[in-house]
Amino acid sequence: MSPEEIVYLEILAASILVGFLFRYLSPSVKRVAALLLGLTITIATCGIHTLHSLFTVLGTWLLIKINWRSAPSLSLGWTFLYLLFFRLVTWFGLPDPTPFANAIQLLLTLKMVSLANEVHSYHSEKKKEVSSFTKSTVVRGLSQEPSLYDIIAYSYCYVGIMTGPFLRYQTYMDWLQQSSPLSLPGIAPCIQRLQMVPVYGALFLAVNYVFPLSYVRTEEFLEQNYFYRFFYMIAIFFVFRMRFYAAWCGAEAGCISAGLGCYPKEALSKPGGGPTVKYNPDPDTAVEYDFKTIQNIDCYNSDFCVKVRHGMRYWNMTVQWWLHHYIYPNAPFRTYALRAGWTMLISAYWHGLHAGYYLSFLTIPLCIAAETAMEASVRARLGPKGQSIFDWVHWFLKMRAYDYMCMGFVLLKASDTINYWSSIYFIIQIVAFVCIGVGQIMKGGRKDRSAGEKENVTRGKAE
């Protein structure tokens, strides 16, 4: 493990333990304590680079105060432009930010864009209430516009400040205003979320030791046989998954211990977004709670779902919610594949400027187009047993597609990524294009048959 990963691990462990203490604090004390702890972590790990996050917060607050109507688009432009400056600061003679500053900046970008949208929704609903004399139908909307202090406290709240999960401002406020946090579930769900972390961690260390990423960049690796080179990406993606499974389960446990994101099950909460329906728990009835709002990873479904498009839903789930609500609806395209491509492009930019991100993320729409074509032209014609076999093959190809794309994500450089992909003959792109071609051919044949059948029916009626 790198020194940075050890620090991340220490912060995660400390956050889980400290979280239980926060349940004993009043709302005002909880807000101040969470802010001070978050600022301490930020300054200790980022130093002077803390100013980047502060400028981002102040800029967003100013945009909201000046023009709340355009705040969603203005905040997106501001935070994403600042991300560009943040990644190119060395061009201006400024010191390169630390990895910790980068992690904080990424999550803060999501928070600020979400905050601007929440404030916009608050003012819009307020105007509707005044003009129509009806109450807002928005679930868990803001009750007032947040002050600068509120925004800073939300931005630097210690919970998930580096590791996530992403949480909306309203989720943060609900946490502060919990009436009886000590009565909410904590230890049991926390242990449940942590029980597999030692396994994930051990597998990460063991497989990473046997299959180091650095070996892929050597000439010796390229001299290995094709099947070894192909298998290597499977091992690398396995290491990648174990690393994030451990980190995100730990981050979720930090939220659970503090009681953040805890809502009644009847609220039907979504990861990242929170409650989706209004709820009024009966005081005389035992209430069941869950932490779906802060769930960032579904390890089982991430591995065993069948489709590429579904794999994204179970990975980094709170960020996927953010992309789905703030980026996907505003894409300048209508078809699903192109909208997905636009969303993946924005996601790649959010992750960084390395070419490997773009090569990987922009392969996803191609895979989606391929699986869509095969489902419509092949799977739809099969019986139950045939569809079951089709799904198993589909799952296998889905996992190999993610193995393949992971290499761009971890190698980062365009040359390293293309060198590896070329060493296995760009197999995923070739399979995807073949599937699209087969789908189009079979689709055309199906149309011809349908037209012939209609013509026969018409002739029969005429006779």
TrEMBL record:
<keyword id="KW-0472">Membrane</keyword>
<comment type="pathway">
    <text>Phospholipid metabolism.</text>
</comment>
<feature type="transmembrane region" description="Helical">
    <location>
        <begin position="418"/>
        <end position="439"/>
    </location>
</feature>
<feature type="compositionally biased region" description="Basic and acidic residues">
    <location>
        <begin position="445"/>
        <end position="463"/>
    </location>
</feature>
<comment type="similarity">
    <text>Belongs to the membrane-bound acyltransferase family.</text>
</comment>
<dbReference type="GO" id="GO:0006661">
    <property type="term" value="P:phosphatidylinositol biosynthetic process"/>
</dbReference>
<feature type="transmembrane region" description="Helical">
    <location>
        <begin position="197"/>
        <end position="215"/>
    </location>
</feature>
<keyword id="KW-1133">Transmembrane helix</keyword>
<protein>
    <recommendedName>
        <fullName>Leukocyte receptor cluster member 4</fullName>
    </recommendedName>
</protein>
<feature type="transmembrane region" description="Helical">
    <location>
        <begin position="356"/>
        <end position="374"/>
    </location>
</feature>
<dbReference type="GO" id="GO:0005789">
    <property type="term" value="C:endoplasmic reticulum membrane"/>
</dbReference>
<keyword id="KW-0256">Endoplasmic reticulum</keyword>
<dbReference type="GO" id="GO:0044233">
    <property type="term" value="C:mitochondria-associated endoplasmic reticulum membrane contact site"/>
</dbReference>
<keyword id="KW-0812">Transmembrane</keyword>
<feature type="transmembrane region" description="Helical">
    <location>
        <begin position="32"/>
        <end position="64"/>
    </location>
</feature>
<dbReference type="GO" id="GO:0030258">
    <property type="term" value="P:lipid modification"/>
</dbReference>
<comment type="pathway">
    <text>Lipid metabolism; phospholipid metabolism.</text>
</comment>
<feature type="region of interest" description="Disordered">
    <location>
        <begin position="444"/>
        <end position="463"/>
    </location>
</feature>
<feature type="transmembrane region" description="Helical">
    <location>
        <begin position="76"/>
        <end position="94"/>
    </location>
</feature>
<dbReference type="GO" id="GO:0071617">
    <property type="term" value="F:lysophospholipid acyltransferase activity"/>
</dbReference>
<dbReference type="InterPro" id="IPR004299">
    <property type="entry name" value="MBOAT_fam"/>
</dbReference>
<feature type="transmembrane region" description="Helical">
    <location>
        <begin position="7"/>
        <end position="26"/>
    </location>
</feature>
<dbReference type="InterPro" id="IPR049941">
    <property type="entry name" value="LPLAT_7/PORCN-like"/>
</dbReference>
<keyword id="KW-0012">Acyltransferase</keyword>
<feature type="transmembrane region" description="Helical">
    <location>
        <begin position="227"/>
        <end position="244"/>
    </location>
</feature>
<dbReference type="Pfam" id="PF03062">
    <property type="entry name" value="MBOAT"/>
</dbReference>
<keyword id="KW-0808">Transferase</keyword>
